[in-house]
Amino acid sequence: MVKITNGVNVFEVTRGAFDGIYSRQGYTIMNEKAAEGAKTPEAPKAPEKTEDEIFVEEILEKPISQWNKDEVKRFAGIKEIDITGTKNANEAKEIIKSFLEAQEQE
User: Fold this and answer.
1) Which pLDDT belongs to residue 32?
2) Per residue in 10-60, pLDDT tens?
């Protein structure tokens, strides 16, 4: 038997009933302290990712050869890669490739 709650009601039910019915209705299993009135501590949440972090993750999923000019510039800016003096996106991509290879070696 387990004690469960939806934040308002508290019931004692079998584990099978909880798994099959009550968990789908928003009930959670209470621990002993929660049953005595203390609130169950929540697990720490992972910090939310910034827009730049999300962009970097997504852009690294596709080959550098498929990056457009804006993606190359944005990635270089985020990672602080100096691409000044490059004549075109392909030259900048080569610098970025070297940067990424050096990171992999570390």
Assistant:
1) 52
2) 889 998 888 888 888 888 988 755 555 555 556 677 778 889 999 999 999
State the distance between the two ends of the chain, measured CA to CA, in whole angstroms.
52
Which residues does residue 3 pair with via DSSP β-bridges, in sequence order? 12
Query: Is 83 a domain residue?
Result: yes
Whole-prediction pTM value?
Answer: 0.56
DSSP 49-85: PPHHHHHHHHHTTS-GGG--HHHHHHHHHHTT---TT
Cα three-residue angle 39-36-33, rounded to 5 degrees? 55
Nearest to 60 by CA among 38, 78, 45, 35: 78
What residues make up the domain containing 57? 51-105
Name 11's bridge partners. Answer: 4
Q: Structural domain tally of the chain?
A: 2
| Residues forming beta bridges with residue 10, ordered by sequence position | 5
For residue 31, the one-letter residue type is N
